[in-house]
Amino acid sequence: MTSTRIWLSLAVPIAILGLACVLLPMVPALPQSLAGLQTYGSAMVLAVGGAVSLAFRRGRVLLGIVLLTVAYAAYLTLLLDDSRSTLARAVFIALCVLVPLNLSMLSLVRERGTFNLHGLQRCGVLVVQIALVAWFSAQPGLVDQAHSPLVGRGLAPGSPIPDAGIAAIAGGGIICLAMWWRTRSPVDLGLAGAVAAFAAAAHGVATPHAFALFVGAAALILTVAVLQDSFRMAFRDGLTGLPSRRALEERLAGLARTYTVAMVDVDHFKNFNDTYGHDLGDQVLKMVAGRLAHVGGGGTAYRYGGEEFTVLFPSRTLGEALPHVEALRKEIAGYTMSLRASDRPVKTKSGRKRRGTRRTADTVSVTVSIGIAERNARLVTPAAVIGAADRALYRAKNKGRNQVSR
Prior knowledge:
This protein is α+β, with helices and mostly antiparallel strands. Helix content is 61%, strand content 10%. It has helices at 3-23, 36-55, 59-79, 86-108, 117-137, 140-146, 163-183, 186-203, 210-235, 245-253, 269-276, 278-292, 318-333, 348-352, 382-398; strands at 259-266, 300-305, 308-314, 337-338, 357-359, 363-366, 368-374, 404-405. The strands form two sheets. The protein has a five-stranded mixed beta sheet, with helices on both faces. Strand 2 and strand 3 (308-314) form a beta hairpin.
């Protein structure tokens, strides 16, 4: 992920949190016609978030929304009017600790859908936590101890959040951000944003409307994350990370009169899979995709299907795109991949059949064949240009592979 894409990903949760900060002083001044938003606005956002996560079968986000709903209900019933009682203090520290920790745990588990055994188990964990909080609230000594500073005057002397909550929020946020950095999933980033929004809610628990507003912001961040993730699944290939064929078709539909298309196919890929296994085959596709993603000349790479890729050069003639395509072919042919012992071929016969691959004792390399065509007076539609590039690809195959044909 480039630095531009990283900042674009971060822009959504940052913008929502910034908007919540801007709106906070405006909420008390809402006109009478909009006064209902003070009471029901966050509940509406939570309901929409739950509906969206259900519609897209995102069990992790749904449980996160349920968690925020429980926190909001606890605020309305226990913290809004009486925040000094033992029960209120117990519930508040429990929320400060359990909400960020649960959100971070959701970033560590796989997506398992909604109405199934996994969803039931996760809901069961939430119910057990509620029972533990009920027991904890009946122990005044433990509540006082939990509110005691961990060090000196406390980790955040100006905040009502106890030190245990500060530690849980910091730890939960770090875990979510680390998982997002590893997976690049909008949902994991949304969970990190939800932790940050809940921290703002807890910090402003004594400020009118702050808790409700920032809980609503947390729910909105998670909702947008679901939509972003669904968009990514529809328009980006899950294995290689390249834009998908659907994204290519939409891009082609909006192009100007001049463009060039290159069809790229991994040579003897089926034989490679039979020899080394599908796991290494997937690694080869990722390697090829990684090289294609950095093609020069303003080109954009797409996963077309199977072992076939497309590189689109908007506003480029065939002659302008050809040097970049040739450089790409040479780079892939010159790249070697390490083989682990478990990846060595188990079938001697299939190992002798390797063609289009070169292997030393510990490495293997692949080649690609490329067909290229440009839009012109004869090839007017995107389908015609792709068809011409596809025919050129087969000519490259027939000429011996590992070459570019026009």
